[in-house]
Amino acid sequence: MRLVARLCGGEPLSITQLASGSRVTRQAITKHLHVLEGAGLVQGFRQGREQLWELNPQQLAEARRYLEQISRQWDEALARFKELVE
Prior knowledge:
Layout: H1 2-7, E1 13-14, H2 15-19, H3 26-38, E2 42-47, E3 50-55, H4 57-85
Antiparallel strand pairs: 1-3, 2-3
């Protein structure tokens, strides 16, 4: 979660920048970034010798809409359950 939070700053960051101040290794961060990239949540690109990473805001907005839909469904189910119990 911290990785995504650090990328929320709006500017692309290198793996070295993402690892700064963390006890997580650069290798572990790289693995996490590749998983997030596979899910479409981040994208990496080369700038000179560095690989920079940034959030994919469109995919995050879609994930948020999906989670909001699930939340509404749970709220409705709990309301029906409450009516049944009362």
